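If you are new to this repository, start here. Below is one unmodified record pulled from the training split, so you can see the exact layout before writing a loader.
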Amino acid sequence: MARKSLSKKLRFEVLKRDSFQCQYCGASAPNVLLQIDHVTPVASGGTDDILNLITSCFDCNSGKGARELDDDAALVKQQNQLQELNERREQLELMIQWKEELSQLKETTVDRIAQYWSKRVGGFTPTETGLQTLRRLAKKHAYSDVIDAIDTAVDIYVKYDDDVPTHESIETAFTKINGILRTNDVAKSKPYIRDLYYIRGILRNRGYVNERYVMELLEEAAEADIPIDDLKSYAARCSSWTDFRETVEDLIEADNADAM
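And here is the target side for that same chain:
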């Protein structure tokens, strides 16, 4: 009965494992024609198991015939392969263990954040949806940053009725945590940003404000070194958004003219 030929997939796996190099003489493709050789010949009971297959160039394979090589190159190759496979298995197990521990650590971090939130708002615990939100925040931000944002949200937005935080204000404060974190991140590179938000709040309280343009204008003013206290004063004294905008634009234009 004719011998069954090796599948393309198996041949490729052997070639890939052996780096497309003859394991007897070291010749590499495309300089030589590579073939797949049986370490233990099929005539001697060798199988098509990948451990019994090795990459050989045409010349080495033709000279070998139906006999095993006298040297121990194939045996050493098998031993090295087994050692490598064992090392890979151990590394995979360690990686899985590390990921499991990391996942547990992340969940522990989320639990601690949830407990801190509950403590700050009189025992109200986050819902499952709230926990999902905290998981996303803990994934993007440092633990200490999330805790600081919770403190800010509670201090600003939680209202009390007979020393008991109201449910509505607790929900509001929770929704503000993500925005506070974003603001804090921006503040690391733009330390004046909180003051600009404060100024925007003053303008909002005075009536209409161009939400799309106001922060752009305020940042341009800050970068032009117009004192923040002056901007606050202008916002408090102006009669309208238009009045404030024109005043600040004139200051920026004057600064640009001085720089020319």
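Two things worth knowing about this chain: Residues 8-80 form a domain with the DNA Binding (I), subunit A fold (CATH 1.10.30). The beta strands are 34-38, 53-57, 160-161, 164-165.
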